[in-house]
Amino acid sequence: MASLEPPNIVVRRLPLYLRALNLLAAEGQKITSSKDLAERLGISSAQIRKDLSHFGEFGKQGTGYEIANLSDQLRRILKLDSEWPVILIGAGDLGRALVHHSALQGRGFRIAGVFDNSPNKIGQRWGELVIQDARDLARFVRHEDIQIGIVAVPQEQAQHVVNALIESGITAILSYAPVAISVPAGIRIEYMDPILHLQRMTYYL
Amino acid sequence: MASLEPPNIVVRRLPLYLRALNLLAAEGQKITSSKDLAERLGISSAQIRKDLSHFGEFGKQGTGYEIANLSDQLRRILKLDSEWPVILIGAGDLGRALVHHSALQGRGFRIAGVFDNSPNKIGQRWGELVIQDARDLARFVRHEDIQIGIVAVPQEQAQHVVNALIESGITAILSYAPVAISVPAGIRIEYMDPILHLQRMTYYL
Lengths: 205, 205
Fold this sequence. Notes:
Two copies of one chain form a homodimer.
Chain A: H1 8-26, E1 31-32, H2 34-41, H3 45-53, E2 65-66, H4 67-77, E3 84-89, H5 93-100, E4 109-116, E5 125-126, E6 129-130, E7 132-133, H6 137-144, E8 148-151, H7 155-168, E9 172-175, E10 188-191, H8 194-202
């Protein structure tokens, strides 16, 4: 039964499964099992099977999962079959790192526009992108039909920028600012927070 | 009974609980419940109670958790009562962003040293830090008794840099490079990967 909406916590684990599958494929493996994935991810194999069962039947009892097929299915479920254009707000050091040595390149997302409010930065060229005036944000978002925004501005400006993004029509936001941001219902926000990851390791030191 | 080693997946959720508690405290709340936390985190209240029970008794039946007390306990469990010195490898745009607009400042971690292998960068001053020669890494790590390293180098260099960190005595690594890195048993590695977070939102678009 795949009729009920799967819980958010299940959806959040799918990209972890996809990443593990990509690694296995890169190592030359063709087939994997929930037990194999469980060992790599530190998530129980029962949990993995249960998570996947929300979306259909992917493996055969006793033969495991075909890696290429399961990856394709997960990409389809996560709507990653075509490239998503995103906009970046904030043309500082972090923004520059995102554009120039992009961790996004070739991984399903493409920075379609960069915006800043500093007159010194507006008009500068970063590779194929020209830094645009933040006041032109809404027009660009509507014209290019962008749904995802990345926020790389100082933390004092983060809430204000997120408000402007939402007003322009953005519905999914990835924020690098180390502050909690309030968003209305229906808007998704994720945080890139090194502290969370560091705190997951100190327990073991 | 808190005698068995709690599973890694449970330890990984503790920083999420701590962050939610900090937010509640900032909003002026004194008491919370597993139900309240569950709603904010998208994790079931039964799961939260079970996770916490690995570490002791924190709430009273019917009265919930005292936020300040539970935060303190979580910080103690995660060994966050004193500040951790960390080293940063890679003095590029991302490294500069980490040092100058640090998301780490005042949050339990402090960048104690920055290293690079480019002669143009070595010797440059970044605030109170002077960029050091990567060849002096091992000496610094031993002398300052550093256990945590942050890797902000181009992806082609990431594995090499991680190897050098481990050789110098580092046991916990946070990598910003968008590639999988192999580490021996006993070494912890976490990844800062925007793709994972973006993929957690596209499902809903």
